[in-house]
Structure prediction request, 183 residues.
Amino acid sequence: MKNFLISIILILFMTSPLFGQSDDEKRFAFRTAFVAHALTYNLDKQNGVGFHFGHFSTGINENNIDTIEKTFYGLNYAYGFDCINCDSFFVATFLNNGSSIITTDDGSTYTYSGFGLSVVGGYSWYLEDAISIVLGAGPLFSSESRESENIKSDNGFGTDADERMEKIRFLPLVPFFLIGYSF
Prediction:
């Protein structure tokens, strides 16, 4: 997958004249939400493609689940209704591969992996100094299934971990916030 993502980015770099861009346009944007990051290439005034990656860990402390740690990477596509590098409404899709590690109260770990898909709509503010602020929300679907387990006791916390993953398999409204720089 890593080689696939690198190949796509290299193809976009080499074919930029085919998309009608001039040298003075901002072709790239790096955006971050501190736990997720994206590098985007603008195909034209309204369309952008890129890749994203992230890693975060959060305490749950509920139903025998202590923490969940998520890692992901994938491809994204964005359409700006007016343009990508201006104040505009947008729609973006994110397809990613990811893994989750759930740690239970007894120290057992359960590893899940699979793909995820998210569609986000929102508004982007583009400031004159090439800084952008992106705010939106949308649904998220994940198909992660259990890959491995490291059980420390026979308390049956694996069922709690499975239920937690099932609970977050589909989230109808996930907030989306990024700050970026175009170059």
Observations:
- The longest helix spans residues 2-14.
- DSSP finds two helices and nine strands in the chain.
- The radius of gyration is 19 Å.
